[in-house]
Task: structure prediction
Amino acid sequence: MDVLIDNWDIIWRPLVRTLEMVLIAGVMALVVGAILAAMRVAPIALARAIGTLYVYTVRNTPLLVIMVIAAFGVPELDVRPTVSLGDAELLQFDVFFFFATAALGFYTAAFVCEALRSGINSIPLGQAEAARSIGMTFAQTLRQIILPQAVRAVIPPIASALIAMTKNSSIALGVGVAEATFRMKTLTNNYASDLYVIFIAFALFYMAIVAVIAGVAALLERKLRVAR
Amino acid sequence: MSASVLFDAPGPRTRLRHRIYSVLFLLAVAAVLYWIYRKFDEAGQFEPELWERLLSDGVFRELRKALVFTLQAAGISIVTALIFGFLLAAARLSDHGWVRWPAVAVIEFFRAVPLLLLMVFLFVLIQQQANFARETNALFAVVAGLTLYNGAVLAEVFRAGIYAVPRGQSEAAYAIGMRKTQVMTMILTPQAVRFMLPAIISQCVVVLKDTSLGGIAAAYGPELVRAARTIATYVGSSLMTYLLVAAIFIAMNSILSALAYWLERRLATRGRAAEQAVAEVEGVLEAG
Result:
């Protein structure tokens, strides 16, 4: 235990880094995933094709490869994560953190998209047909019949995607982001005799985040449960 | 587009509107692609010398060496993970609490820990306990990590597969006097394997992808992504080198994905129950 308390000064910041990544990438994944899902069910053939191609490509590429493309490759194109107004740079992000988080978000988005799409597809066509035949408008059908059922169906797979994302945030170590796994690695190099303590402590940290996501998902599921 | 829960079948005016959307979307996509092309061109990513280096024999040799290691690590891991997963599932399905609960703990632990964290731990551990050659250490960390994580996932796949077999099957078997072991080995497992196959192959894709983590955990490891780092310096473009690596992964995984899809289709012809069973088993796989 001493190794953790003595080194708390250098441990807490990487933990916060991981939390930052999870939060930012999580929001990105949900937004981009929703856009992708909309593309995959849109009445435009090209949009559907691009959505399908995106999901297929991302699913078959290791996240690490996507991260190194983003963190080492994209800067070669002179694309930098700065917000500038004229000559004055308003915001400057840490390059590796920015691109690693973006990669994580865009990677997870593919899985969020699949969750949303399968949620929409899980609703029997008869539901929409019945709603339309009793005279509901398109908006009413969507709001009162389709979405309430779809939301319930998508919560477990989206939670699963976000949990996987939390664990995947550790891969940012590979592009030099000082997040939790990075600190675990350096600590095990310096305190080899405390290897087990360090491993279990960092594992518990990730498990805590996973437990929060799973808990929120369970809560939402119970809230949205409807007697059938 | 055919009828869906979101849209009615379009009439002539809606079809016209959709066509206009399609043209606008096409223009937007073309603009984005042109912008990307310009960016690549400006950064000199299309220079002939760069491509000559990228497609040279030396790079090809390095990539092939790394590919062999990656496939080796993935192949060994899949076999060991299947064995470990089978043992875990057998323990998980046991009637004895003292066998079942440790299995539950092991499965839940290894599913919850980030694989990279596990690999880093294993790599330091093997260095402490038995310092083999660096390459062996790296291979051990990758294979052991992949085995523990994927074994836990596959154990859940096996369990879901067993549960997906209709209840009447085991009831009938018990009714004619079979013991639990007989029911498991002679009745449930042979039927469950069919439902599990697509999920197992999907997990093989995950294993192949996750071999790339070995290069980070071991800070050495002759697998593809690590090898690409050296190649990128020689080629002078990280972007093109890593895109090439991505293409290699996509090509390998496409074969596996196609196999999984084909199996799924084949099972779907056996009717809706089989299709549902396959979907149920795949539901335990993690998204990502």
